[in-house]
Design goal:
This protein is an all-beta fold. The chain has strands at residues 5-11, 17-22, 29-35, 40-41, 45-47, 55-59, 65-70, 79-84, 95-98, 105-118, 121-132, 137-138, 145-149, 159-162. The strands form 3 sheets. Strands 1, 2, 3, 4 and 5 form a 5-stranded antiparallel sheet that branches. Strands 10, 11, 12, 13 and 14 form a 5-stranded antiparallel sheet that branches. β6 (55-59) and β7 form a beta hairpin. The N and C termini lie far apart (41 Å).
Length: 193
Amino acid sequence: QGSPIWGRMTRNNDNNVVIASSISGGDSAYTNVLNTTGGTFSGWNIYNSDQAETYSVATSPSGRIGNAYIGGTGNDGKAFYRYSDDGGLTWSSPLMIYDPGPGDTVLGTIRGVDLTFAGESPCVVYEVVQQIISLGNYFPGLPSKIHFWSPAINGGNNVVLADSNNVPYYPYNGTKDVQTPICRPVIGKAQGL
């Protein structure tokens, strides 16, 4: 159905490359592992994420591969985390880390998500904005938020990192590039942490 694009990559402890990717116009994402010694791929494995960089992968110090992502069909507006302990070949069941709650008009996830590890604890940031899920509409002129999740922080409950209370609000009125006033979060850590 097309070639995967929008790749996100991390290196596992065997120096192989774990890739998350998607297909333009699709409603799923894929993972694959490049064996750097043999130059071969494990093959694409599908999971229920959305397209266009709505996923992130990272490696913990012990070699656990984490995958944070925005939900695809049936899980619109939600965020998930899963992990692999075999270098990205197989994955745990996904853990929902954000649920916008009941209803069709919700503050739901949209596009940006990023992941790193603090020791062995995954740390995820993602963006949320007002949406009508059934119509696929979002409202870039309304305030948006950046959330943070880690099982080691706040009892595993999400924390609002940025919103119109601590970042000056400016409505996004640009082109149809799926951006909101506060969007595309990135998380990192100092080396050795």
